[in-house]
Amino acid sequence: MSMITVSWDDPVVRDRLGRIRQQAPFIYGVTNYVAATLSANVLLAVGAAPAIGTAPGWPEAFGASAAAVWINTAALISTSEKDMLHVAACARDAGVPWVLDPVAFGAGSAEYDRIVRRLLDFAPAVIRGNASELMALAGGDAGGKGVETTHGSDDALRHIQALAARSGAVVAVSGATDYIASGSKVFAVTGGDVRLTRVTGAGCALGALIAAFLPVCDTAVDAACGAHATYAAAAERAGRHAVGTGAFGAGLLDELSVLAELQ
Predict the structure, then answer these.
(1) CA-based nearest residue to 227, from 204, 209, 214, 241
(2) pTM value?
(3) Torsion 105-2-219-257 (CA) sign
(4) How far is residue 76's CA from residue 192's CA, in Å, rounded to a whole number?
(5) 178 has which bridge partners?
(6) What is the pLDDT of residues 199-257, one digit of tens each?
(7) Helix (H, G, I), strand (E, B), or coil: what is residue 227?
């Protein structure tokens, strides 16, 4: 296995973040109402233009016209299966790259998991999640505790490689070290802050950030690595000054906007 370390210090990562600010890509998301605000604010912080939800006409209009799409499957708490699959189909048919975030896969019902698996038929460019979600999606016995993982990212390494090979997508797992699998290569991103696990929607918002990187990168793996490295750097910087989790959440947005403006 080839392991490559990626960080905010890589000039390519910084350049791609600068391109988001310059191009202001339209990023369409289907996500849950718990995470929607933070996801939108993360996109705005780096200079992207977000729209979220499945209002009448949006799945086909936005799914096909956005620069990239992300689908967070916890959106099923307020979005229909039909609308969610329609967004994925419209993106695929229009050649729009999209990100799949299989929230709580393996920890809920068989019916929920069935819908998540159907989304794999629409060729996501990137699949991102926590260790338990991705291990279960790869076929392992690794149900999480609700939406939280019961495994570390190191545990998921061989599983994300298998899922990447089977699905054709880049697969990214978050944890103490983030890993991104593509083909025979695995990329590692260190840093961040443990308080990312204590701010509602922080993981979900990372899926949105990956989507923002997709239209400004040459490959999906570059997009996943760039988003993870940027998020880790912003979280680390925010953690230096924040006293508690509330200040950390606000600081994360501040640092993302500062990093974007520096480029």
Answers:
(1) 209
(2) 0.94
(3) positive
(4) 29
(5) 189
(6) 889 999 999 999 999 999 999 999 999 999 999 999 999 989 888 999 999 999 999 99
(7) helix
* pLDDT score at 241: 87
- Would you tell me the crossing angle of helices 11-23 and 220-239 to the nearest 10 degrees? 90
Q: How far is CA 143 from CA 36, 100, 101, in A?
A: 24, 18, 15
Buried b (16+ CB within 10 A) or exposed e, 101-113: bbbbbbbbeeebb
Running DSSP on this structure, what letter comes out for residue 74?
Answer: G
How far apart CA 205 and CA 202 sit, in angstroms, is 5
Distances (CA, A) of 148 to 108, 131, 200: 12, 9, 11
Instruction: State which of 151-155, 194-198, 202-206 shows the largest mean pLDDT.
Output: 202-206
